[in-house]
Amino acid sequence: MSAMAEIMRIAVNDRGPELRERLSERLDRAAQLRCPEHGQPVIAVTIHARENGWFDSTWTTCCPDLERRAAAIVKDRCPAEREGSCPSKAASGA
Questions:
Q1: pLDDT tens track for 23-48
Q2: Rg (Cα) of the chain, in Å, rounded?
Q3: Are 41 and 49 a contacting pair, CB within 8 Å?
Q4: Would you say residue 44 lies in a domain?
Q5: SS (H, E, C) the chain
Q6: Is residue 92, in this structure, part of any structural domain at all?
Q7: Cβ atoms within 10 Å, residue 43
Q8: How high is the pLDDT of residue 73?
Q9: Dihedral class, residue 84 (left if φ above 0, else alpha if ψ from -120 to 50, else beta)
Q10: Within 10 A of 37 (CB to CB), how many other CB atoms are there?
Q11: pTM, rounded to two decimals
Q12: How much is the pLDDT for 82?
């Protein structure tokens, strides 16, 4: 597989650049994830801005576990993910 095919596609639906800038580091971390079962990266994410800085995300991944892990990073639900010690991973058996 070429390196170009492994780049996560990101779309941010917002009126300005603020949300993309705020999520930049987290999106970069999510793009580094690989599914332990299938070895696949996150394919794409679309971020939909809502009011007061909130947002929804739609993911394209090989399985629900990878989607949960990526969403947890972007929603900042599990900061320990970057160290590989996320409690949600242990609970899911990943």
A1: 999 999 999 999 999 999 999 999 99
A2: 13
A3: no
A4: yes
A5: CCCHHHCCEEEEECCCCHHHHHHHHHHHHHHCCECCCCCCECCEEEEEECHHHCEEEEEECCCHHHHHHHHHHHCCCCHHHHHCCCHHHHHHCC
A6: no
A7: 15
A8: 94
A9: left
A10: 11
A11: 0.73
A12: 44
Closest alpha carbon to 30 in 88, 81, 70: 70
Task: Print the domain residue range for 40.
Answer: 4-87
Per-residue model confidence as pLDDT tens digits over 48-92:
999 888 999 999 999 999 999 999 999 986 544 444 545 444 444
Q: How many domains does the chain have?
A: 1
Question: Which amino acid belongs to residue 35?
Answer: C
Question: Hey, what are 24's tokens?
Answer: 């930049």
- 54 inside domain: yes
What is the structure's pLDDT at 5?
53
pLDDT value of residue 94: 40
Report if residue 51 sits inside a domain: yes
Distances (CA, A) of 66 to 30, 53, 80: 9, 25, 16
